[in-house]
Amino acid sequence: MLSSKELLLSRGQKITATILKIKYDESICGWRDKEFILVDLPAVKGGFFRAAPSTGIHVRFVKDGHAISFMSKIIVTNVQPPSFMLFEFPNILDKDNMRMHERYKCK
Fold it and tell me: In 3-state terms, what secondary structure has residue 68?
């Protein structure tokens, strides 16, 4: 099972989630390792986003020179304030280094 450090998760991280072939921009609000990831509910025109539990979701984002992609399933969507969506913590991760050489953090 993966951990949040392997996924490079951080609060406020912008992600692109593809749900039923439609792309949504969301941000990560929190997570519990090996259980779920909590994100903002996607904004849709003229109503609320709704998805049935176990609907597939494909998540992509770039962080620290790594392109990260994984598949998961939605646990629940809540449209009542505060609106949020929970999806399962992934088991498999596609992580691609976009840089030839590792960057060193410095000030």
Answer: strand
Mean pLDDT of the chain: 87
Give the tens place of pLDDT for each residue, 26-36.
999 999 998 99
Tokens 């909590």 correspond to what residue?
A: 38
Where are the alpha helices (H) located in the chain, listed in sequence order? 4-7
What whole-number distance in Å separates Cα of residue 68 and Cα of residue 53? 24
> What amino acid is encoded at 39 in this protein?
V
Q: What is the DSSP letter of 11?
A: T
What radius of gyration, in Å, describes the C-alpha atoms of the chain? Answer: 14
- pTM for the model: 0.82
Q: Partners of 77 in the beta sheet?
A: 85
